[in-house]
Design brief:
Belongs to the 'GDSL' lipolytic enzyme family. One of its GO terms (cellular component) is extracellular region. Keywords: Hydrolase, Lipid degradation, Lipid metabolism, Secreted, Signal. It is found in: Secreted. The protein is an alpha/beta fold. It has a single domain, classed as Rossmann fold. It has a five-stranded parallel sheet with strand order 2-1-3-4-5, with helices on both faces. Strands 6-7 form a two-stranded parallel sheet. Helix 2 crosses helix 11 and helix 3 packs across helix 4.
Length: 341
């Protein structure tokens, strides 16, 4: 079940407290995830079908042009970076192999990525969570050659790792009737596969030097526009949300286990589900008006992204969702504020 409000507030205090004690200097941050935090990696994958490098994406971002972010403006990662007083880490694939920027933080997130390697298979190219961890391993070796092994290890131990992954394992895997996993596994079997795989992945990150890891739980996917259209009445899909709550609960237990098993590990589970659900159920409380459909008039039959010929809503700042999957800049601002209460 979702965490009570007081427990959520206490967890967010711990999250903020961790950030305040990272370092007197500007924190080094590494971001892993999917399209909710991508900043352009997929633009460098020639055959990827999971791209947002066309209008109207980026219309409210600095410069007003598409940057590979799957929203009209900033991602939640961008906004967290702003609050940390640092520049948003650059896309991994935008950097040269020996770039000094590697020392300040990198964003590995990739649209379509999942915990499982076969998630998002029909996008042809994307960086799965395993791919992203492999990429981090590569840059750590580069950092060692730049500053030496001891300094590289210290940098990695002190850095912060933001991880938001798992949505695509549902939206672009289990919930797709034409894919094997939705037919091969019951949900109980599928969620055990996700958790056991995630256990191995987070342990591997730890072995590579990650200590301060913040895992962002999944939001109420049953309420995103791409799922609502499956309901005859346009309501949230209750069963999907129940599955997501179960996933979040099991990840929380995994993180408790990892903190016990791994010396000096400081993993935090950021339960964003209640915050996102409140935004959807009570948009007026936050100065928003529309939460049951996207600002961009999308066609969910052909993917649900905002295409160049799509029509936009008249006031983008009043919508929770930008396209069939992703929040607007306005919604991301509100969610970032909730992470720093």
């Amino acid at each position: 079940m979702a965490m009570p409000v007081l427990a959520f507030a206490a967890l967010m205090f711990t999250f903020t407290d961790m950030i305040s004690t990272v370092s007197a200097a500007l924190p080094v941050t590494y971001v892993f995830g999917d399209s909710l935090t991508e900043v352009g990696n997929n633009n460098y994958l020639q055959y990827s079908l999971a791209k947002s490098n066309y209008p109207w994406y980026g219309i409210d971002y600095s410069g007003g042009k598409a940057t590979g972010r799957f929203t009209n403006g900033r991602t939640i990662g961008d906004l967290i970076s702003e609050k940390l007083g640092i520049a948003s880490p650059p896309a991994y694939l935008s950097l040269s192999g020996n770039d000094d920027a590697l020392l300040k933080g990198v964003n590995f997130a990739s649209g379509g990525a999942g915990i499982l390697n076969d998630t998002g298979l029909y996008f042809i190219q994307r960086l799965s969570f395993d791919d992203q961890i492999n990429s981090f391993k590569k840059i750590k070796e580069t950092i060692k050659t730049k500053i030496g092994e001891d300094a590289a290890n210290k940098l990695c131990y002190q850095a912060m790792y933001f991880i938001g992954i798992g949505s695509n394992d549902y939206v672009n895997n289990f919930l797709q009737p034409f894919l094997a996993d939705g037919q091969q596994y019951t949900h109980d079997e599928f969620i055990e596969l996700l958790i056991s795989t995630l256990d191995q992945q987070l342990t591997r990150l730890y072995q590579l030097g990650a200590r301060k890891m913040i895992f962002h739980g999944l939001g109420p996917l049953g309420c995103i526009p791409s799922q609502r259209v499956k309901s005859k009445t346009g309501q949230c899909l209750k069963r999907v949300n129940e599955w997501i709550l179960e996933f979040n609960s099991k990840v929380q237990k995994l993180i408790v286990s990892l903190n016990h098993r791994l010396p000096n590990a400081k993993l935090i589970f950021a339960d964003t589900y209640p915050a996102v659900l409140d935004l959807i159920e009570n948009p007026n409380t936050y100065g928003l008006k529309v939460s049951n459909r996207s600002c961009c008039n999308v066609d969910t039959n052909i993917g649900g992204l905002c295409l160049p010929n799509s029509k936009l809503c008249s006031n983008r700042s009043e919508y929770v969702f930008w396209d069939a999957f992703h929040p607007t800049d306005a919604a991301n601002v509100l969610l970032a504020e909730k992470l720093f209460i």
